[in-house]
Every structure is written in C-alpha cells, then in structure tokens.
Amino acid sequence: MKERLKEIKQEALEQIEAAVDEKKLQDVKVYFLGKKGQITEVLKGMGKLSKEERPVIGQLANEVRDEITEALESKKSKLEQAALEKQLKAESVDVTLPGRPVQKGGPHLLRKVIRDIEDLFTTMGYEVAEGPEVETDFYNFESLNLPKNHPARDMQDSFFISEDLLMRTQTSPVQARTLRQHEGRGPVKIICPGKVYRRDTDDATHSHQFTQIEGLYVDEKIRMSDLKGTLNTFAKHMFGEERNIRLRPSFFPFTEPSAEMDISCKICQGEGCSVCKGSGWIEILGSGMVHPNVLEMAGFDSNKYSGFAFGMGPERIAMLKYGIEDIRHFYTNDVRFLKQFHGV
What confidence score (pLDDT) does residue 156 get? Predict the structure, then answer.
C-alpha cells in the first residue's frame, strides 16, 4: 500500500507538470483527489491492515494528498499568470502609433442663428417665451383676430388633429398666452422662438416644418417708430452696419397697420441684381402694430396700451446671411454641409 501511494504521488506530480491549461489541471485533481479518486481507492483497503499499519498508512496518505494539493495550487498560479501575460500582450497598445483624429462637432447653423437673435433681443430687455406646439384653435387663430371662417385662415394650410386642436402654424399663440398671463397689465416684452407646422410641399424654399421667431412689445405709448428702430437694430446686427431697411404696407389680421420689412441687398448694395430681382431690396420679415382687438381679447385696454409685433424665419435669415440656396440643407444632417459653418 505504501508503494501504491508513492506511485500515485509520482504519477500525479508528472501529470500536474504536464497540464497545459486549467481544465486539464482540474481533470488531474479529480482523478487523484476526488471522491472516486486514486487515493480514495487506496484508503478503501485500510480495513485489511493491522492496527499498527493503519496510522502509518493514514499519515502517508495525508502527506501524499497535501503534496499533490500544493503542486496543483502552484501549477494553477503559474497557468493564471501565463494567461494574464498572454492577454496583456494581446491587448498591448503601441504608443508609437499615430493617434486617431477626433472629429469635433459644433452647434447646428440654425441653432447658432436662433441663439444669436435671442442674445440680441435679451440685451434689449426682451424675455424668451415658449408655448405648446400642439395648440388650440382659439390661441392659434381666434385670439389673434382670426375668427372661424376668416378668409386669412386659408393662408395657413394647417395640420388639424381634431376640430379644436392643431399643430401651431406660427408662434403667435405664445404671444396671446403671455398677454393673458399679464391680466391687462404691461409691459410685455418677449420673443418667441420655436417650431411651427404648415401643410406645404417641401422644396428649396418651403418646408412643412420650420422655425419662427416672433417678437412682441406692449406698453403705454408704444409707436411705429419704436418698431422701426428695433428692426433697424436687428438688421444691422445680423447683416452688417451698412444695411438699410424699408417698411412696406402689408396686411396681417393681428396687426394694424402692418408692414413687410426689406433690407438692402448686400450683393449689389441696393443697385439691383439677380438676387434681389433688380429691386435692390430683399424681403426679410413681417411686422406691425398690435391690433386693438388682439389687446382687448387678452384683457388690455387698447386706449391705454399699444404695442408692436414682428415675425421672422431663422431659416430665411440664415439663407440670406450665408448664401444657402436650399432650406432642406438644414434638416438633412449632411455633415459636409454642417462643417462649412463651424466657427462662423
């Protein structure tokens, strides 16, 4: 039995040394130290030994088991270290290789233009106001002096959700809501940037979804000259100090009198060219004095308060300022287009 234990020890140590991975090492452990392993088989014959031989064989069996266990742990540690070194070698980074260039992003051109306009008007004392894009018929039309069946509603082909709900066709409802919140007390001085929606065929100059920025200033003794001065400041800020403006009579249901604002063409300096169609002027936005009906519906005394409003499309502003010919470029997320305006 002693000889058999010595043979088991020798066989175990040889197989442990020859093991090339942890699975093979586990197989060796089970074969020699498991419940049905070689040492267990030897110990089953202990009953046939004399009382004097049993403790000797038992001690020898324990020594053999301990040596095999120690050899297994040592081999396992070596295999783990070798596996780690192999992994580290495979995952090593060659620091001498050139780095990969990082693509830098930036604000979208349309967002930059909107932010620029917001910054200008906030320095002039305006607050930025927002409202829901799903609007009621009352705020989108009726509160703006557009009662049901008013012919001017046909100018804004709308996305109706129900008889009373629609996707807002302008940001003017934000003005109406803000006026009501003031409960007939001025001043009200806001700009309202946001998305608007109209049923339109998408082409180079039209989109079913676009952005607007509208402004509103209501207080005592507000005059048309205040509107002209504000718009002149805006035009020179966005297009250069050399730009001139002119106001042409127009019609909007929610303003009276109403006016379209043109700026002098920067291409021909007002002399006339293909860009301005020979007129020397380019239309930029609509404006006017707030209609007394709009003030009265919001709870303001139109004999005491007056105001002006204006509305512009940031896409048009950006197209004119940067020479962009197709409005769809703003929404296609073409990186080649967007990169042109990093840093402007």
Answer: 67
